[in-house]
Design goal:
six-stranded parallel sheet; alpha/beta; six-stranded mixed sheet; 342 residues
Length: 342
């Protein structure tokens, strides 16, 4: 089963930004300078959440022949820093301007009010009610349910694990779906669970070493499939799984296909996908075409906004696992299964 997710380009870490001149589409409607993209904690190069946004940014630039600027976060930054970043993009003429991650909610709310003619987008937050703001959110619990089914079918020990980056409601959705999916296969399955930090500022989404330590602990306790929803920290989880020769399940992007994770890819069973790139692309398309999206825009299994990546040939060879995941997907889309969010 596949979901149409924008493929990621190889992206390196660093504080650099790309910028190019704006232009118009063929109809001449668009007159902005291009897309403004402000990254979440971990920045570009996480092979997951931020890089998915970058892929949509690149695709939109190419297809619509417009410019763009993407900017990195700073460690320990405040809401005021985010406001300043978004205001600079707005003053320069970028449209749309997208905050990648719920941490941008206060900044998007403030800056969008000052620039009503510019369309703003925020990913993973639906609290901003404004005519020029699109709240781009997802049913992460649905793709996580599929990850749980896959984990429970693939485990040889009936013992799996979940590692969340930060102990917050958004990541609770990933865990809730994963647990429900796994228990639909085996109600008695043992599930290890750990959150790396209580707040994003403590590095839960940006510390591969924390992810690796947590995964080592779960694997040593007996888990042989570990699912992570931890941003950049998830790279450490995948590395630990590869070293112990057990399965990891990726998140947000198809992590099996990431060049930076190539040496570990044989240990990546699949990935719970969140089409962040598609959300960035769709919002940009709507602005270029003169019909900007606004309000809540939520991706689910039915729309292709979330899914489960099946690119690993080893996964495809597990026909019983694949059929179970496919059946679960059908049942969620049809409404036969309602997935928990907490």
């Amino acid at each position: 089963m596949t979901v149409a997710v924008i493929a990621l380009a190889a992206a390196g870490c660093g504080k650099s930004s790309s910028e190019s001149k704006g232009s118009t589409d063929e109809s001449g409607k668009y007159s902005g300078k291009g897309i403004g993209l402000a990254y979440d904690i971990g920045g570009k190069g996480d092979q997951s959440f931020n890089d998915a946004a970058f892929a949509g940014f690149q695709k939109a630039q190419t297809e619509f022949k417009i410019g763009g600027r993407d900017v990195e976060p700073q460690d320990g930054e405040s809401d005021a820093d985010k406001v300043q970043r978004l205001e600079q993009l707005a003053k320069t003429g970028y449209n749309p301007i997208i905050g990648v991650g719920f941490a941008y909610a206060p900044a998007v709310k403030e800056v969008a009010a000052k620039y009503p003619k510019i369309t703003f987008g925020i990913i993973d937050d639906n609290t901003i009610q404004a005519k020029n703001v699109a709240d781009m959110v997802f049913h992460e619990e649905q793709s996580s349910y599929l990850a749980g089914v896959a984990a429970a079918k693939a485990t040889k020990k009936n013992h799996i694990g979940f590692i969340g980056g930060v102990d917050i409601p958004l990541i609770h959705k990933f865990e809730a779906g994963f647990d429900q999916g796994a228990k639909s296969v085996n109600p008695k399955i043992k599930i290890e669970s750990q959150y790396l930090t209580q707040t994003p500022a403590e590095g839960g989404f940006s510390s591969p070493d924390k992810g690796k330590d947590a995964a080592n602990g779960q694997i040593e306790a007996g888990a042989d499939v570990v699912y992570q929803a931890a941003g950049l920290s998830g790279q450490g989880v995948i590395q630990a799984a590869a070293e112990h020769k057990v399965w990891a399940i990726g998140v947000d992007s198809d992590q099996y296909a990431q060049s930076a994770l190539a040496k570990y890819k044989d240990s990546i069973l699949g990935s719970a996908l969140k089409n962040v790139g598609g959300a960035v692309y769709d919002l940009t398309k709507s602005v270029v075409e003169g019909k900007p999206l606004n309000g809540e825009v939520r991706g689910d299994l039915k729309s292709g906004g979330v899914g489960f990546a099946d690119t690993n040939p080893k996964y495809k060879a597990m026909t019983d696992v694949v059929s179970a995941v496919d059946k679960a997907k059908e049942d969620i889309i049809s409404g036969k299964i309602t997935v928990n969010t907490e």
